[in-house]
Design brief:
Elements: E1 3-9, E2 15-18, E3 27-28, E4 47-56, E5 60-69, H1 72-75
Parallel strand pairs: 1-5
Antiparallel strand pairs: 1-2, 3-4, 4-5
Length: 80
């Protein structure tokens, strides 16, 4: 059986499993789910998928999405 596993890696190094693959530059929340745009405020806790790494194994793939925290000034274009 072949398994695909997806993870987000937060800037501090914590790893959390997510249900699906995320696109590069996707804006996500603290749980690794995509945020609907426009954001209600630029003071939202949001991360951007900065890098994706895939480990290919015999029984499946592990995809790691490395996140970077976005500051309030960086979120202004995405807010109402």
């Amino acid at each position: 059986m072949f398994m695909n596993e997806y993870f987000v890696v937060f800037p501090e190094g914590d790893v959390q499993e997510v249900p699906d693959r995320l696109p590069l530059n996707e804006i996500v929340d603290i749980n690794g789910r995509g945020l609907p745009l426009p954001l209600p405020s630029c003071k939202t806790i949001a991360f951007r998928v900065a890098r994706i790494k895939v480990n290919e194994n015999k029984g499946g793939n592990e995809t790691f999405h490395y996140l970077e925290l976005l500051s309030a000034p960086e979120l202004i274009p995405y807010a109402r």
